[in-house]
Known about the structure:
- The complex is a heterodimer.
- Chain A is mostly helical.
- Chain A has 1 helix and 1 strand, in the order αβ.
- Chain A is flat.
- Chain B is of the alpha/beta class.
- Chain B has 3 domains: 2-139 and 337-364, ATPase, nucleotide binding domain (Nucleotidyltransferase, domain 5), CATH 3.30.420; 184-330, Nucleotidyltransferase, domain 5, CATH 3.30.420.40; 376-606, Carbamoyltransferase, C-terminal domain (DHBP synthase).
- Helices cover 36% and strands 18% of the residues of chain B.
- In chain B, the strands form 4 sheets. Chain B has a 9-stranded mixed β-sheet with strand order 13-21-20-14-15-19-16-18-17, with helices on both faces. In chain B, strands 3-2-1-4-5 form a 5-stranded mixed β-sheet. A 5-stranded mixed β-sheet of chain B has the order 8-7-6-11-12.
- The interface between A and B is large, with 43 and 58 residues.
- β1 (50-51) of chain A pairs antiparallel with β8 of chain B, so a sheet runs across the interface.
Amino acid sequence: MIHQIRKGIISFITPIxxxxxxxxxxLLLRLINKKFIPVKFDKNKNSYWLIKHDKKSGEAEDxxxxx
Amino acid sequence: MKILGISAFYHDSAATLLxxxxxxxxxxxxxxxxxxxxxxxxxxxxxxCLDFCELSIDDIDYICFYEKPFKKFDRLIKTHISFFxxxxxxxxxxxxxWLNSKIFLKxxxxxxxxxxxLNSNWKEKLVFxxxxxxxxxxxFYPSPFENSAILTIDGVGEWTTTSYGxxxxxxxxxxxxxxxxxxxxLLYSAFTSYLGFKVNSGEYKLMGLAAYGKPIYADLIKDxxxxxxxxxxxxxxxxxxxxxNSFQMTTKKFHILFGLAPRKSETDISQRDMDLxxxxxxxxxxxxxxxxxxxxKETGQKNLVLAGGVALNxxxxxxxxxxxxxxNIWIQPAAGDAGGSLGAALATYxxxxxxxxxxxxxxxxxxxxxxxxxxxxxxxxxxxxLEANFSVLKDEDLLKITCDSLIDGKAxxxxxxxxxxxxxxxxxxxxxxxxxxxxxxxxxxxKVKYRESFRPFAPxxxxxxxxxxxxxxxxxxxxxxxxxxxxxxxxxxxxxEKNSFGLDKLYLQRSSLPAITHVDYSARIQxxxxxxxxxxxxxxxxFYELTNCPxxxxxxxxxxxEPIVNSPKDAFRCFMGTDMDLLVIGNCVLRKEDQDSSLSxxxxxxxxxx
Lengths: 67, 610
């Protein structure tokens, strides 16, 4: 029952989230010509490898984080 | 120090228990629940791990989940932002799933742990590894190497799809990554889906099918779908792929490129399908080769360890070995997400707690036999409950009767010792046959396994005899490497036979072991070692003594769509529901003709086709 109610609420708020987060952020990023995810080849690049920037990743305190 | 590793909530949930760095128990949830690729919280697997070691949950010092859920959520949101305005339906469905449960994953895990005990401070004990760190740990720490380069390649973890680094002693450093949506695993899965097979289970079929085709589309793939740099790094053109913003793996543009709509599941397989399979297989091999060369050069290492779903591509692994770009390779047998539970536990022990590591010169996986086992009393009791008719034999008689039946062309269910961890059956939960029989592949595929006729079978060979039969010199105890049968055992093809193509190749006798020789003379080899599986080794030795052939067909003990059997009860049901002739569980032997036929059931329809 709780599961069903929660599902109903989520179904209700999902379009709102889409309208107030996904749409404006996406449009804003396009305006400033920034992309979270590259979706095309980049022939000018020599490599697609990304340096693992999160230096603390794998350290003891990092194991307690969910992000 | 006791650490429990958990992987769950995507596919192939599993649990692993580590005691003072030793892997003592590992199992996949699907084996207990009988739901293929079960993704639910691995309640039964955890119970097995604890029971096996006679521990209570309060004895556990740390519980490590194999990935970081918030990082994954971050990827999901940014993906939707990037693909806006396309993909609202996909956004809605994924939000329902995430906001309903996945985002509260920590709470969900804590609740499950509290159900087991209220005496522990679970918040202090619950930790999270990264998805690819878990893969890297599962590849490096159990390997026989003090130092090694590490390469992990899969569909996707949080953001990462490919990563490399170095393992030294008890430490792992990851240097570089490739991020979603650019994924070799998902590229392969896209073709799996396009060719009418199920994603996350049909990839093996695609690999088997590839041998029937010619890679005539490889250049088309490289020109349009994937840009590969000199260092093996790659990027996909996402206008061909739908998985970022829809429930489809491929887009219309992809279908136009290859000239046809996706193949419908269970329809006839055309030469074009086989050529496409061969093409994506070749491209995958080329990328893995380039990646490996680069990683070895960059890290200055001579050893390489692999994990992640793509490391289950044993054809590609075999090519790596053949090219002699490295000195040693070790592949985690549970390279997929189930192995994430093992990696998470190992990463906690070595990387987080900095515990000293002792390298085992063979490896630390104990042959992969890490699952449940049943005593002779338990087996007999189960069989009696099932009203099965069986005889109990001494080892020597048991081996003789089994070998005689194999020689008579019978298909045999073989259920012994501890169940394997990982997708391969390695002689504990296996169906066995005589590889010399020209009919055996067809019989096993169609009457026992109920699966597609083109799928090849793997050989188990005594390690001592490996070099006499195959072009392979290294151990392959986990069936992770494909190699070719030696020329001396091949049969020459002439005229019509030589010019046959497609599935016509299937029933041609290519060697003195036709049932395990694939159409390109390759075989996915399992070397059998007395130290890790003495009973299976003794069986093949007896077969060798009687036939001069040290090889058996070894296929997993299940039918299509079913998880590999776990208990004697599962084994008996599968035996009765198929055309298997003999079942050997522990020291019990069951003949089909001795069983009450009313105990058999419509087994085939109990499982969804995969």
